[in-house]
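PT: before anyone asks, these are the final sequences, not the draft ones from last week. 1270 residues across everything. Please model them as a single complex and drop the result in this thread when it's through.
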Amino acid sequence: MVKKYRLGNPIETDSVVVSIQEEKSTIPYFDIVQGKNELRFDMDENDHVFGLGETVRGINKRGYIFTSKCADDPNHTEDKRSLYAAQNFFVIWGNGKGFGMYVDTPGCVSFDIGYTDTNVFFIEFEDFDANIYVIDGASILDIVKEFRGIIGKSYIPPRWAFGFGQSRWSYMNEDQVREVVDNYDKNDIPIDSVYLDIDYMERYKDFTVSDERFPDFKAFVEEMKKRNIHLVPIIDAGVKIEEGYDVYEEGVKNDYFCKKENGENLVAAVWPGKVHFPDFLNEDARKWFGDKYKVLLDYGIDGFWNDMNEPAIFYTEDHLKEVFEKIKEYEGKNLDIRSFFDMQGMVGGLANNDEDYRRFYHEYKGKRYRHDKVHNLFGYNMTRAAGEAFERLSPDKRILMFSRSSYIGMHRYGGVWCGDNKSWWSHLLLNIQQMTALNMCGFIYSGADVGGFGADVTEDLLLRWAEFGIFTPLFRNHSAEGTRRQEFYRFTDTESFRNISKLRYALIPYLYSEFMNAVDNDEMLFRPLCFDHPEDDMAYEVEDQLYVGSSIMIAPVYKQNANGRYVYLPEDMKLCRFRSYNDYDVEVLGKGHHYVKAALNEVLVFIKKGHELPLATPASRTEDIDYNNLNYERF
Amino acid sequence: MVKKYRLGNPIETDSVVVSIQEEKSTIPYFDIVQGKNELRFDMDENDHVFGLGETVRGINKRGYIFTSKCADDPNHTEDKRSLYAAQNFFVIWGNGKGFGMYVDTPGCVSFDIGYTDTNVFFIEFEDFDANIYVIDGASILDIVKEFRGIIGKSYIPPRWAFGFGQSRWSYMNEDQVREVVDNYDKNDIPIDSVYLDIDYMERYKDFTVSDERFPDFKAFVEEMKKRNIHLVPIIDAGVKIEEGYDVYEEGVKNDYFCKKENGENLVAAVWPGKVHFPDFLNEDARKWFGDKYKVLLDYGIDGFWNDMNEPAIFYTEDHLKEVFEKIKEYEGKNLDIRSFFDMQGMVGGLANNDEDYRRFYHEYKGKRYRHDKVHNLFGYNMTRAAGEAFERLSPDKRILMFSRSSYIGMHRYGGVWCGDNKSWWSHLLLNIQQMTALNMCGFIYSGADVGGFGADVTEDLLLRWAEFGIFTPLFRNHSAEGTRRQEFYRFTDTESFRNISKLRYALIPYLYSEFMNAVDNDEMLFRPLCFDHPEDDMAYEVEDQLYVGSSIMIAPVYKQNANGRYVYLPEDMKLCRFRSYNDYDVEVLGKGHHYVKAALNEVLVFIKKGHELPLATPASRTEDIDYNNLNYERF
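LR: through. Structure below.
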């Protein structure tokens, strides 16, 4: 049962696709705090809070404050209040009852869930305008399903996108891409795609391909396609300012770029240097930008990732000028230390500066909005531009699309990856924990960079991360410039990487079918134990095991040097300890606590009673998986 | 059995106090890698590596690379190779045998423990000069004891330093300090000391007290002393350049400051603005600086913490000039993005810049050394300056002293705190894990900032952290300027903070006696389970439980929203679940795995068979604890 309430004058986000009549009564559960832009809910000691999509910390969100303000911040430490996403749906559940709430506002909003006051949940609005959807249901899963019912079906990628993808910032040319594919094939490690990061472009211009690095891109795409390898280029939000560059010139001519208050196009700097930002909120601009993907579709490309769309801003032209002026004032002075830090902070703070987000405007649904008021819709509408275009340009063929920034609604047009994480064990755990909240908010095709993007990976971390990553729909190994190379074939224990990767391919029939079920029926592919066992107090304590689909539970190892882990079983299950798809031992374990051994090359999968896990014979490409010859492990 | 070997021409560090004849033979276990400044040891799969003092990651150091280069870096994320300390002692143990090694060199050295190659341990030297001590023994604890035997007895603080200390950057004046004490007393939460961070000084000048903020400091110290409160001021490494300031003028006159190559005193900037660094490695300068502590001792002060002694450098005068020049080159240019990042990195990279550490020199044992060659001795010798002075100035009274930067040898003159950690759950775990390696290296009086220094704490984190912190000799709550206030009385559940703090005071007789035993007999106060149970494979897996002294084991809860945790008992034990010193339930648990409930206000203590835990009746000050009336919980 979903009810809609209104606070102030909300800006429409198009995230809800079902027409729901507005209630005249006041919002239930939460009270408006007099004199403040705040809602307040007094939590019971037993209340758990789930949801909010891609955020830091655990599955139960109690005890911290999360701010929806899409942010390009690669340091996902536990004190961060904002990551790339704004996914304002949560469920409060305790003592056998609860409710869900979707706070639909494109502006900045904070969820203070016992941070300020341990047992109080405050929702703090920058502008007190929002559509509030309150969802009642008999269980957490019911509430999630109800919510998913109003936001429209989740994006479905092509099936090959369930294969493994190798990425790097950046494979610099044809030969480097070939080398990657050759090495995977030579080592008999399955792979379906190679990602092209920003350097494939000509001077970082969207919808161009460097003819130095990829002299005959069409032929190269074709060559790869013959090997059943999909190339997945990145698309950035900023359009390079360069005379003669068609995207730039068309955008200027048609007024498709975001403007400053004085009517000039905002000049920001991102990878290409100075850029304009397409006004993705403007329907005409969105259509225009979406059609640009055709350039790459025509090369034979059938997958993309949209990046830098919070939008990330390294600096704006105006702000940089101001900073240079101020630096002059500091120079020569006997800087006191606070002034020195001001100066350092000023230079360091040029990027993604709040002030810059107040320097430009959007034309949205016939009105002009300052960017910060609709900030969280930017990445969403960039991906919507692509998704709507694909429906026109490629109606019969699914195109892979996922985005860094997101807002609920975007889940209909693409998936997400969890952005620029790090090669940290704690980020492997974060990856595990984020999947459930992403699913609640409709983002089913999702995953994090396996092995971590920033910082240097170790072999054991990469292996353990792969052992979890094989269960996420998006299974991609990606890493940053300057960090240790982390393609699976670069380490000592190639055999284990091969076995783990092949296990993924053996699991694809199960994963794809469960994925489709989650999309079609508004279910969650990844579920915390307590969602399935609301009566089991212990199930609420478990933040590192997940149900994956209807038949299995996983318990990944995410600690360095660990040779096993504790597992809680809320019901009797059959443990399969996989070393490879056809080398595993099985053991029936009873409901309760267990310490389970898991060597570095072993994956723990638990099959539910009365269920079966189909296992295909792995192939080097998803296309070659024989769906008609599956083996079943049953319990 | 300790044997000494020589690599190249080592610089003497005075960390080993026993004269050991040098072996003529080659170093055992490790091989010299031809053509490189590296030693290599091929690890067995079962080898564990322990030690290295204050570093990131777990108790078993396998799987990462750690660099001894004392660093002022407040972001102790798991990718960091260097923290504040250089403590180059480790033990390799597996299959019932092993050895210890102490790599005694003041320069930069890296311990690549399976990072580059999973099963290989490389020691990489910047300069291939070191005294290498190889320690054989029948057990890890034997080896540690042997090692501790050659480095001299660990520092012992006054007994009041086992009481609770409250700190903040900064309590700005008398009234703010009084307010803290009043609030602790009003809320009946025990406290023995209040820390004075940098703002107590007059313009951040060492050995001065601001007479605006503390108009009659002597009287104020006296007032506090009457309440049995010890004020503990900070001392920073840099001496402010200011005409008329005696420390500055004496240092210049006597050539006690570190010089550049051209013979001028190095000008660096730290909190006071421009400073010179005393050359603590110069014996005369060390004595001179040490004697300066008398200024504060004469006020009645009997405790200090030495900070910024890596040394931290915000910038050097020369480097800042160069950067301003370079910025001019960037200005006005149509900055390409890489140049922009260069510019940003240049400004951000002014602090603690490697190049700056090559810009100044020390006079050490009759020779001149460029700073980077002896970098890791700087903080050590600052604290040695104080410790040696206290022996002269206060021979009959123990003075509290601990330091941020350290090297083995410094453990004889003071303890350490684990530097500028954060209000992160992961740093509570790090605190737990660091204690054992610190103890191995002789640092027994130690602890981390309870609640975390940087970032904003939450009530539950502070409570859980206090529940562990009550076991660490240094039990101090400290937090940074700009972060949420975190004195124990500022939260909702004052009762639990009171109970936990009182439990500390009830434990002091046990902790102090076990501390003294650890010091006197070269034992470890904190021990990983496997040190006591080398034959128990499972004990090696446990990285979040510790033996504390001879009679108890603790299992802190370090996860948000957790109401219990898994515990492994290597032997039968008696669990005491403390809500307060006189409200706890007991239960005998058998050897093996257990899931143990621990509500937010409960502390898990396990008593070993045949042992007893004495519990005092808590007092508001350590001085008032009645050691003659103890209750005993026995098993």
